[in-house]
Amino acid sequence: MTKKEFKAESKRLLDMMINSIYSNREIFLRELISNASDAIDKIYYKALTDESLTFAQDSYYIKIVPNKDDRTLTIIDTGIGMTKEELENNLGTIAKSGSLAFKKENEVKDGYDIIGQFGVGFYAAFMVADVVTVTTKALGSNEAYKWQSSGADGYTIEPCEKDAVGTEITLKLKENTEDDNYDEYVEQHRLQSIIKKYSDFIRYPIKMETTESKLVEGTDDEYEEVIEEKTVNSMVPIWRKNKQELTDEEYEQFYKEKHYGFDTPLKSIHLSVDGTIRYQSILYIPETMPFDYYTKEFEKGLELYSNGVLIMHKCADLLPDHFSFVKGMVDSEDLSLNISREMLQQDRQLKLIAKNISKKIKNELQSLLKKDREKYEKFYEAFGRQLKYGVYSDFGANKEALQDLLMFFSSKEKKRITLHEYVSRMPEDQKYIYYASGDSIDRIEKMPQTEMVLDKGYEILYFTEDIDEFAIKMLMTYSEKEFKSVSSGDLGIEDKEEDNSNDADPQEHKELLDSMKEILAGKVKDIRLSKRLKSHPVCIATDGDITIEMEKTLNAMPNNQHIKADKILEINANHEVFHSLKQAQEQDKDKLALYTNLIYNQALLIEGLPIEDPVSFTNDMCKVMV
Ligand SMILES: Nc1ncnc2c1ncn2[C@@H]1O[C@H](COP(=O)(O)OP(=O)(O)OP(=O)(O)O)[C@@H](O)[C@H]1O
Q: Using CA atoms, how far apart are residues 55 and 43, in angstroms rounded to an integer?
């Protein structure tokens, strides 16, 4: 049996390459600039082993020359150039990467890493150009060649004149159509912004003539157009610099330049990891919440670079949702990119980096909490809610990692404290971590249910956000202590023997409680004598897992399932109101119904719950007054 080779329809292949690989046309410039940078790198590598060569970094550059009249864009480099044979091989064969071959031959190391690997980037030029002309002179050669192609039809190669070693690629831009404007690729500002976006950290200067309007010397209102050659890229990626050499101002400057936010970041984290996967990263904890943070429009993610070239603007997979506020970038030379560089071929490396980054962020936040409380509180004010979501979501998968970053307002301290701080000062006889939920600190402070817990000298955490109780339910315990709502049926507080002020006998008042239960049938699950009330006559407690605040939150959700908390009406047997109830029970059943309804509605009001029938409530009030 003879084995046959596959044939390829090269015209169709080229057409597919040009039109299907990239989703964004502007990246043609990134590809050509990366090739130019690779070509210069190759001289650098050659110079390492060839003593007759010296590599003077300053003499190498890339130049972008737009020509509006001819509608051409030329990319010039002072790199290694190509011989006639290399032109044939590299630009005449699709998917042949001279750069990859070079990398393998020269065992490229030490950070000057060559970008090209697939042998397709060059053809991106045909996304914007009808005709591409390459003139090139290889290092060490006296001959120069011109390669020209209009795409699928093939190419020509002929000798030409060129003094300097290097390559010049001229694109004759396509004609504009109704939908597409190609003129933008000869516009100075547009080109500058594409270079800044993708190629800002190419190691060699990318030069361009720029026209700027400047004040004429000696005048104060006369301007003239000045043409200057400028380097438009920053060249040295700040993340490749040594941490010790960088100042806070430089990190802040980078944050602003990259438009990560308008604020001044609270903290920057600079990572340089050289493990199973190598990467560098600069991360920021912003100071203020972006205006769209809690909207559908907000996109989390970090910038992803491969060898200093931007691959993805917002790589969401690098950040877990609970740290979605983090801004910054990651650069790695170890990513397996797909052919368009728009995606990654496998996400194992990305997962590793993401895991690593997530750990670092957590550690940095923890150290901020320890070392700079004020800053941490500022951070928590803006993004604490997201951490609580993090505890709750994914069925609590991250709760352990996040629990020590949480803070809640304390009844004792009158400011936010951590769970660790709470537990570490719990009196020995205190079994639970107590919390009270309500709309605001003010309201919670006035809640009758807190009386007994406070009286015992126990601290209460105030929950004012709807997510709080859900997060805590997911956490279940902290340091082996369970959480308990001050409104829950059983507070788990044992009365000291001498304190029997709340020890009224329920049996003794059974008849009254039963009559009241009948009056409030369907509204409350039970009526009990309270152990927690001191000065207030009445409150609502709950049995079971659903508390009043949770009921409110669940019922405010779009898929409202009318979930109800099991409400218990608690009455303070030591309060004068209780005696009035007792009297009414004995003398006037209508009065008992009136009083019972009144105190029930009062309890609802205190909880911030709506009164079912406000008109009959006010009528009842009037009846008491007249
Ligand atoms: N400006 C240049 N100077 C010298 N050689 C070049 C230049 N541009 C391209 N080449 C050669 O042509 C080859 C093919 O380039 P092309 O951009 O298609 O692929 P690549 O850069 O190797 O890989 P990738 O598709 O990953 O960018 C390169 O590998 C390189 O050998």
A: 7
Ligand 1 centre to CA of 510 (Å) is: 91
37 lines ligand 1 (CB under 6 A): no
Q: Is residue 35 domain-shared with residue 85, that is, in the same domain? A: yes
Instruction: Give dist(CA 536, CA 486) in Å, integer.
Output: 15
Supply the DSSP symbol for 609.
P
Average pLDDT of span 539-552: 83
Pocket test for ligand 1, best of 45, 90, 120 (most atoms within 8 A of CB): 90
Report the chain's mean pLDDT, rounded to a whole number.
90
Which range in 233-237, 305-309, 333-337, 594-598 is most confidently predicted, on average pLDDT?
594-598
Q: Are 537 and 413 in a shared domain?
A: no
For 487, the domain range is: 406-494
The highest-confidence range among 178-182, 402-406, 487-491, by mean pLDDT, is: 402-406
How many Å lie between the centroid of ligand 1 and the Cα of residue 116?
6
Same domain, 329 and 412: no
* One domain, residues 194 and 262: no
Kindly provide the ipTM of the predicted complex, given to two decimals. 0.98
Res 346 pLDDT > 80: no
**Packed helices 510-519 and 576-587: angle between N→C axes, nearest 10 degrees:** 80
Structural contact between residues 430 and 403, judged by C-beta atoms closer than 8 angstroms: no
Per the structure, the count of domains in the chain is 4
Q: Is 558 exposed, middle or buried (0-12, 13-18, 19+ CB in 10 A)?
A: exposed
Residue 570 lies in a domain: yes
Question: Domain with 168 in it: what CATH number?
Answer: 3.30.565.10
Q: Which of 32, 38, 120, 41 is nearest to 73 (CA)?
A: 32
Model confidence, pTM: 0.81
pLDDT digits (tens, 9 = 90+) for 372-400: 999 999 999 999 999 999 999 998 999 99
Strongest mean pLDDT among 95-104, 187-196, 329-338, 497-506: 187-196
Nearest 10 degrees: Cα torsion 446, 452, 458, 459: -20
Same domain, 478 and 526: no
528 with 433, same domain: the answer is no
**Whole-number pLDDT of residue 228:** 92
Is residue 500 within 8 Å of residue 573, measured between CB atoms?
no
495 phi-psi bin (left φ>0, alpha ψ -120 to 50, beta other): beta
What pLDDT band is residue 498 in, cutting at 50, 70 and 90?
very low
Nearest 5°: the CA angle 358, 237, 230 is 145
Is residue 389 a part of any domain in this protein? no
pLDDT at 462: 96
Give, using CA atoms, the residue closest to atom 8 of ligand 1: 35
State if residue 31 touches ligand 1 by the CB under 6 angstroms criterion.
yes
Mean pLDDT for 62-67 is 98
Q: Are residues 455 and 526 in the same domain?
A: no
Residue 264 lies in a domain: yes
Which residue stretches of 372-507 are H helix? 373-392, 399-402, 419-424, 441-445, 451-455, 466-475
Whether residue 290 lies inside any domain: the answer is: yes
Residue 289 to residue 484: CA distance in whole angstroms:
31
Q: For residues 298-334, b (16+ Cβ closer than 10 Å) or e, as one string?
A: eebbbbbbbbbbbbbeebebbbbebbbbbbbbbbbee
Our answer on whether the CB atom of 121 is closer than 6 Å to any ligand 1 atom is yes
Same domain? For 298 and 368 the reply is yes
Q: Which of 92-101, 272-281, 352-361 has the highest mean pLDDT?
A: 352-361
